[in-house]
Amino acid sequence: xxxxxxxxxxxxxxxxxxxxxxxxxxxxxxxxxxxxxxxxxxxxxxxxxxxxxxxxxxxxxxxxxxxxxxxxxxxxxxxxxxxxxxxxxxxxxxxxxxxxxxxxxxxxxxxxxxxxxxxxx
Length: 121
Description:
By secondary structure, the chain is α+β, with helices and mostly antiparallel strands. The protein is built from 2 helices and 5 strands. The chain has helices at 2-21, 70-86, and strands at residues 25-33, 36-44, 47-56, 93-103, 106-116. The protein has a 5-stranded mixed beta sheet. The longest helix has 20 residues, at 2-21.
């Protein structure tokens, strides 16, 4: 379990670095509110971008983006709603996924913009 946590932390650091190089301004990382969590919250092109980071080692069974299922999406959207209310955010919100696969000497990074939308009830 400890190795998995380190892989996740290292992946989130790599994702932050990648996003900053792309011009994103990181506002919060690992933002918690009660039982909600957002991996990365950034601003880019006048949008609040909520980024779910998924990191896998080379021997993965399920691709990183496939791990973001409907339940995870509902939790991320609820957390983003709580975040927007808490900080009184008036920007449109976009949901992205940064998928990282750990390779020898680094990561293979895929950034999926508008990866999902808030589900309608």
